[in-house]
Every structure is written in C-alpha cells, then in structure tokens.
Amino acid sequence: MKRHILMTAALAGGMAAAIAGSALAYNPTVDTVASQRAAGALKKLQRPMTVTFKDDRLEDVLAFLTQTTGADFDVRYQEDGTAAGLDPDAKVSLEITTEAPAISILERVLEKVSDEFDPATWQVSKYGDIVIAPKSRLNAGKRMRVYDIQDLVFSIPSFTEVPELDVSSVLNQSSGRGGGGGGNIFNTTNTAPGESVPQKDMVEKIVEIIETSIESDQWRANGGDGGVITVYQGTTLLITAPDYIHRQLESYSFGK
To answer: Which of 47, 59, 61, 67 is most buried, judged by most C-beta within 10 A?
Structure first.
C-alpha cells in the first residue's frame, strides 16, 4: 500500500515539476498568428545578457529590456486605482555580472518591485503578447485547458509474496532422475497480489500535489481566485487558470 502511494506521489510530482523541463510546447487558444507571435517573443527573451541597475525606474528598466531583446511588453501600470497595477516609478537595483537569459532578469526585476501580498509576474496572453502585471490582475484572464493524467494513475500490480525457487527440484531435473519429469520448479502457492490504491485516490493525490506545489495561494481550493481544477471522467483534469499557472504545468518551447 505504502509503495503505491509513494510511486503515485513521485509520478504526480513529475507533472507538477514540469515547470523546468517540460515536454509540452506552448499551445495558444486563438490562432496560428498568436502562436507565432508568442514563440517569437519567448525566443527573444532567451537572449543571454548582463545588467546593472541602480535605483532605476521600473518603466525605464522594462524599456531597456525591450530595446535590448526586441521583445515588446504589455505592462499594466497603476492607473486610476480601480485595478491592481505596477508603479512605473518603482526603483530597481540589480546587478547580474554572469550572463543570464533576459527572461530570468525580467523575473528578478519583478521580484524587486512586487507587493508582498500581490506579487507581479508575466504571462502570454491569448493574442500572443507578453503581459506583465500583479497576479490579482492576471487572474481575470483565465483560460481552461485539458490535461490527460491517465498515464500517471496507471496502477502497477504489487505482490506481497514472490515465488520461491525449489532448488531440490532443479537439481533433480538437471541430473535426469525420474525420467526427466517437467514439474514446476517454483513454489507458486504464495503469490497473492498486494493492495492497490483506488484510481480516485490517486487522482485526488495528483490534484493535491498541484494545488500545493504550484502557486498554492492562487487556487480556489486554498482560498485564492487564480485557478480551479475539475476532474472529468476519472482521469482528465479541466484546469481553469491564468496563463502564468498553465505555463508551470506545461512549460513553453521558447520558439525552438
């Protein structure tokens, strides 16, 4: 029983850990043009660079990254106070002397100017734009995607007792005694299958891992308003969430 639970957690963890090394490419929901636009921008943001910012305005820093990489940003700044936004005059101090991808530098810049209770991040819009804003504002742009987890909940049989080799029988048969009788050399009387974890429990465990390891504060199940997971027909997850959550489940191809 414990062996099954550990195996399920490991497999599910692989799905949740798809942030860094994923196999799935970005899959936009609008059209090919949006896909090409997003892939182009993400590829530009892989450019390696070094930077030194000393109390520079956020708006100037983002303009520098645009000018250097060629990637345009749709930045949601503070306007009339009706929606969460970034302060264009927020000060950024950051020094990176070893080359790093521009996307990594962008994320570190956003960490510098983020509100503790409403951190900023980036995501790809359904039109292929790179949008930068506080998470609470990005949460308004949820999209539903379908995740088939059937492979993750496939149960491998586990046996509590294994067959035992009858050494005497092997020796007798090899010496030719008894007319070379073909008896079974294994004692198979104790091969009862072990307990298996119900598929429903395995699916619930995967959902739990996702909701605790990826943007845990943003899921509706945890009191947030960023994402919700619905189980459909047993092994399909319908996940309605903003793109910055989906990208951590799927990852992007970065225009390769």
So the answer is: 61
Would you state the pLDDT for residue 17? 42
For residues 76 and 111, give the distance between their C-alpha atoms in angstroms, rounded to a whole number. Answer: 16
* Residues 107, 174 within the same domain: no
**Locus of tokens 């073909």:** 182
Q: Is pLDDT at 175 greater than 90 in this prediction?
A: no
The DSSP result for 95-164, as a single string, is: EEEEEEEHHHHHHHHHHHH-BTTB-EEEEE-TTS-EEEEEHHHHTTS-EEEEEE-GGGGPPPP-BSS--E
Counting other chains too, the contacts that 32-36 makes at CB distance below 8 Å and 24 or more residues apart are 33/128, 34/126, 34/127, 34/128, 35/128, 36/128
Let me know whether 211 and 224 are in one domain. yes
User: What's the number of domains the chain is made of?
Assistant: 2
User: With bands split at pLDDT 50, 70 and 90, how would you rate the model's confidence at 41?
Assistant: very high
62 and 170 in a single domain? The answer is no
CA dist 26 and 126 (Å) reads: 11
Residues 173 and 220 in one domain: no
Torsion from C-alpha of 230, 235, 241, 246, nearest 10 degrees? 170
Q: Which domain holds residue 147?
A: 2-153+196-250
- Average pLDDT of the chain is 80
